[in-house]
Amino acid sequence: MAILSTQTLIASSTAVIAIAVALSVLPGWFSAKLLWFYSETRCYVSVTTLSALNNATAECITFNPAGIVTAVFDDLISYPIYKAGTRYGYAYPGLWDGHGHLLQYGEMLQSVNLFGSQSMDDVLGKISLYLDQNPQVGTSTEWLRGIGWDQAAFGGKMPTSSELEDDDSIKGKYIMLDRVDVHCVWVSQAVLNLLPDPLPETPGGEVITTPGPGVFCDNAMDLVLKYFPKPSKVQKTKYIKNAMKDLNSLGIVGIHDAGVAPADIKLYEELVEDKDWSVRVYAMLECEKRNTVCFDDAFKVTRDDGLLDVRSVKLFADGALGSWGSAMITPYTDHTNSSGSLLVNASTLTDLTTAWATAGYQINIHAIGDLANRLAIDAMSAAFDVLCPDAPRHDCQALHRFRIEHAQIIHPDDQKRMFELGIIPSIQPTHATSDMVYAETRLGPQRTEEEAYRMRSLLPVNPVLGSDFPVEPANIFQGIFAAVTRRSPHTGLGADGGEKGWYADETLTLEDALKGFTLGPANAAFLEGKAGAIEVGGFADWIVLDEPLDEMDIDELRSVKVRETWVGGKRVYRRYDKSVGY
Ligand SMILES: *[C@@H]1O[C@H](CO)[C@@H](O)[C@H](O)[C@H]1NC(C)=O
Ligand SMILES: *[C@@H]1O[C@H](CO)[C@@H](O)[C@H](O)[C@H]1NC(C)=O
Ligand SMILES: *[C@@H]1O[C@H](CO)[C@@H](O)[C@H](O)[C@H]1NC(C)=O
Ligand SMILES: [Zn+2]
């Protein structure tokens, strides 16, 4: 024991002296070699850097023990071990999801997956099977959770609580199931029995009563959530760790977590100290009570290692298109009585935006409908006038980088304003391909053509691309496929069931789609130069693929499997491949 520590002492003091001597006395090339000694280098068949700083492609990446890239270069004879032939793989910058929900994703990984269910029997069968495997859930203290139902699978009729009582294995359980867009919940009779009668009014929400009770949408979900037994700290910790592991396996190194309660950010702060925190999280703070000012609970976080960042806030203007909840300037084409609803009125949205912006928070407003997008832009404009009374609004935006989450349906006049101001749209390409089957019915042809789910048109304002996991699968290659083809990554087909992409004028090039999942999120999170590219001074985050993306058939993008994922110079995921032996 004593001998060992003496040796360690001698070794480390020798190293310190050697570094000091090298840095002060020896010629530059020698100190560079010494630094190299403490650093690590990985070489690949090619490295796509996406960097404006160094070459677009290279072969090797050197990074230091702090997980920062120190060199990006072509192979030198000094790295014989990596000479061609023994090298494998194509490196790309680590992928970022510009809009997802970490805790909910972890929770989903431990719930009934109802995505793609074809009928009520199908749904009941999946729940029954889940209960067989997880007999402990469904009690008053641990409700059975599920996500992914869509009334389209029930002939367009909303589901009811009583239907969950039809199956003997499910009957009597506490159940809460999220709609595919997470803007409605469907609950069992046991949960319904907890609610007051009559139910209080919920502006901005809808309690569904036809064909029967059981579904609550938008603000009305709060009626149910009030009784939902909150997951314990232990459960949440498990959600986060499982989610990170899963995201790493998809090549994801960072996410924008689109709405995290202050108490959960406290938990993140604790967990980020663990070595298995392996995804960079740029979290948008969301007050315990949605659309409020909560400065007493709010706080910012920055860390040198870049593993957790909090400096933005999430506000909500409206609900989702699927449930006619998004706020429109003129009524829905298939619901001529309704233009959806705002979750807050224009003056409240402006007050909230100005209050948070003045406190130094980046503003991220959820806006789907064209009225919601218009009011979000109004609110941001008003905040610019307070933040930068003497500067053009465009310059103020460049400094504060306000963004609109989803930015789904935007009136042409407002698209123009967005460009003038430079407001960042945060877009989910798979929302476009999931919604394409009904969007035109809701919106009519003209609005769809001029306003809806734009991607290429919005390129000038640096879009951020994301998936909105768990609402959509977290696989970014599916998002890239959706952006590049405007066809469903699940079927490979367009809205009409054929090869034609949906409003294909709005497709992105492969490069722009990749940038939307790397450089775009880096910019929208104030992380340019650190994330989104492989470059000197940036985080040593990258992924390794078996084949270069631009040589794949478009269809292959749907099923790309990542070989390795690196975060801060640590390999956080490696796919074991028997045939290759590593
Ligand atoms: C680009 O690559 C060439 C060849 O490897 C190298 O000489 C040059 O220094 C590189 N440029 C930058 C900016 O890294
Ligand atoms: C429109 O509203 C009227 C009155 O509220 C209602 O009777 C009618 O069913 C509604 N129509 C549609 C298409 O929702
Ligand atoms: C907007 O909503 C707030 C809060 O609900 C309310 O106090 C205010 O009067 C409303 N303003 C307008 C113009 O409707
Ligand atoms: Zn979201």
Topology (SSEs and partners):
Layout: H1 2-24, H2 28-38, E1 40-48, E2 57-63, E3 69-73, E4 90-93, E5 95-100, H3 102-109, E6 112-113, H4 120-133, E7 144-149, E8 175-179, E9 184-187, H5 189-192, E10 205-208, E11 215-218, H6 221-225, H7 233-249, E12 252-260, H8 262-271, E13 280-285, E14 308-316, H9 346-358, E15 362-367, H10 370-387, H11 393-400, E16 403-406, H12 412-421, E17 424-427, H13 429-435, H14 439-451, E18 464-465, H15 476-485, H16 510-516, H17 519-524, E19 542-545, E20 564-567, E21 570-574
Parallel strand pairs: 1-4, 5-12, 6-7, 7-8, 12-13, 13-14, 14-15, 15-16, 16-17, 17-18
Antiparallel strand pairs: 1-2, 2-3, 4-19, 8-9, 9-11, 10-11, 19-20, 20-21
Helix pairs in contact: 3-7, 9-10, 10-12, 13-15
Bound molecules: 2-acetamido-2-deoxy-beta-D-glucopyranose (3 copies) and zinc ion.
Residues 345, 347-348 line the site of one 2-acetamido-2-deoxy-beta-D-glucopyranose (NAG).
Describe the structure.
With 582 residues, this protein is α/β, with parallel strands linked by helices. It contains 17 helices and 21 strands. It has an eight-stranded parallel sheet. A hairpin with a 4-residue loop joins strand 8 (175-179) and strand 9. The model is unreliable at 1-14 and 16-28 (pLDDT under 50). The site of one 2-acetamido-2-deoxy-beta-D-glucopyranose has 2 residues, from loops. Residues 345, 347-348 line the site of one 2-acetamido-2-deoxy-beta-D-glucopyranose. GO terms for molecular function: hydrolase activity, acting on carbon-nitrogen (but not peptide) bonds.
